[in-house]
Write a structure and sequence with these properties.
By secondary structure, the protein is of the alpha/beta class. Helices cover about 40% and strands about 20% of the residues. A hairpin with a 2-residue loop joins strand 9 and strand 10. Helix 5 packs across helix 6 (about 155-170), helix 6 (about 155-170) packs across helix 7 and helix 9 crosses helix 10 (about 210-215). It is globular and about 50 Å long. D-malate binds near residues 70, 73, 104 and 105.
Amino acid sequence: VRLDVAFTPAELRGAAGRRAIVVIDVLRATSTIIHALVNGAKSVLPVASIEDAARKAEQIGRDAVLLCGERDSLPVRGFQLGNAPEEFTAERVAGKTLVMSTTNGTTAVLAAAGADHVCIAALLNIGAVARQLVARGEDALLLCAGREGAFALEDAACAGRIIRRVHAEVGSVAGNDAAWAALRLGARPATERALARTAAGRRLREIGRGADIVFCAHEDRYDVVPILDEHRVTL
Ligand code: MLT
């Protein structure tokens, strides 16, 4: 099996024709999506802009949806939820459709949308993602959301952790140079301290959301792999 890595969505150059893409945004969008779905959210609809979110909410019906996401890591005015995983409790999200717009994470999910199979990964579910990749036995691209078009260490390290798990199962994995670099970055589990030193981690600490880093650093918290189908992410 071949697992390539793209450190930023710009490296994707179109998802059409790609068989499988795994989207990663450890701090925090994909971690939040996974947690929200585990807590019973019906689905997550990624949208690009705040205006798109409002439009989508009108289409579906305001009462059935929760608007969520961030800009510059802060909650968006008029949205019911931000992008901090622990806001997405079962009490808040069970049975709800979440319309989500974030700076990097949902943008990466939308960029992947033309591929045959798109799934959502973070440190929270690396084991489940690796097992699914092994079971599918197909080549895949691990797409890091990055940060405003640039490399993000936590996403690359997570990609490396996934490749490492697949390698442990199947014995040999081919990949591009980015995959080899990711493998080195993911040689050991990412510690909370290491995540806190990244640009995204520093920003979260700056706004008093250090607890999110601790939450998102937890490998294998969940045994689920959300997938994107018809513009909806579901379990
Ligand atoms: C994003 O999608 O840009 C992020 O996850 C940023 C954040 O939540 O702080």
